[in-house]
């Protein structure tokens, strides 16, 4: 999508963006396939990293993600939200008149969180369907979910959302396919929004989900028994996780220039350059302003991330708002429980480096996926400290101005950081790459290899020759390097184990290692 062009200035800033092409995979016949998209910019909300234009563009991309064409898009600046209609009366009327004139537009996307009352009043005033941000995201999730678990999670998230409002109809559970049901469609019917029925449905879904999860846990435990380190790819939606997954595994996953292309997690075994087998996991993308209950619904999907040995945060480094996206991802990870204390090593993959101009070129390379002048700013954590005016409520036009950056500068900066970073969420290791061209992907795999080696220790245990259980444990959890039994009946086993397994073994079998050879120390 092109950058929005301003078409009018005044009390409302109005922007028009080119109609988005309809993505084909999810094109379905539906009552509403054209939408008016509004981004509401509330004064004083302190969007210092994200511009209103960027937010509007994202809302239009979300709309496109379910095959709906944005025919008009607009930023509405608000001093405050009106309790009854969110927008001011003048604006409500103006939009109402426009909708009346355009009789093929029957859907308005309001990029904000609407209260049930606001939602109902707007639908009445406009005689059109209204979706707010959460409803829109749920709608996308509803279309994407493919596995039983994914479908159940979406249904649960949807019902929880309904319970928080208790005024809308819900229909998707009755429908065979597609969507979370906000858009209506054949067979839509009003179902009483009774708390008790809702609560029962939620309980039933939770029980079903629990069952599915138990199966998953069994599978995971099986995997743990033959321990393969887990590498999880996380990141903002559209950052390129699936493309990178595909590049590494050769697997034909669904990578698309669509928000939330991936919903269900995907896992594959791969072999690192050192020969070490690991499990690589592609996950659902994150997005800003995702309500906490939605994040909670996807906890199960993201459990793999919580157990990962290495978390690769894939960033679209060519995106104008790459810093805001990074902050959002870190926030969601923290909500999921991934914080500084986590054992996992964090790596940032600065993806789409090919979409940035090289040092020698003046223009971005043509043929880049965006094909347009995307952000050419050094990620904010890479910039020199700037004096702060202590004012957080920056609005559009007041965003920090940063120097243009080239792919070469980023490569260098990633290298420098990787040399000193400690691998925590705040101070991740970095590698610049392009999942599309393959540049830097080997570097990422080498980095993962190195870190996994550092996470493992070579330790030696002395156990009684009769202690078959302890020996079996070591064989199950590590790579046994040597195993000798003396005539005196002592069995000496040297094994390469994950650090946390050394502690676990000591706890379970009461045996401390007699010798620890830190591979990491040897490397240093
Ligand atoms: N130029 C360029 N485009 C890329 C690169 N990697 C991915 N893309 C494009 O970015 C878009 C999104 O890629 P995906 O791999 O689907 O992104 P994702 O992170 O899996 O997205 P979700 O599943 O929606 O969370 C696609 O159009 C890709 O072709 C890259 O290295 N360079
Ligand atoms: Mg994906």
TrEMBL record:
Domain Hflx-type G: residue ranges: 229-456
Print the keywords alphabetically.
Answer: Coiled coil, Cytoplasm, GTP-binding, Magnesium, Metal-binding, Nucleotide-binding
Biased composition range(s): Basic and acidic residues: 383-399
The compartments listed are:
Cytoplasm
Task: Answer yes or no on keyword Metal-binding.
Answer: yes
- Record carries keyword RNA-binding: no
Coiled-coil spans are 188-222
Which Pfam family, just one, is annotated for this protein?
A: GTP-bdg_M
Among InterPro entries, the record links this protein to: G_HFLX_dom, GTP-bd, GTP-bd_M, GTPase_HflX, GTPase_HflX_N, GTPase_HflX_N_sf, HflX_C, P-loop_NTPase
Region of interest (Disordered), residue spans: 357-425
What this protein is reported to do is described as:
GTPase that associates with the 50S ribosomal subunit and may have a role during protein synthesis or ribosome biogenesis.
- Similarity comment: Belongs to the TRAFAC class OBG-HflX-like GTPase superfamily. HflX GTPase family.
UniProt subunit comment: Monomer. Associates with the 50S ribosomal subunit.
Name the record gives this protein: GTPase HflX
**Gene coding for it:** hflX
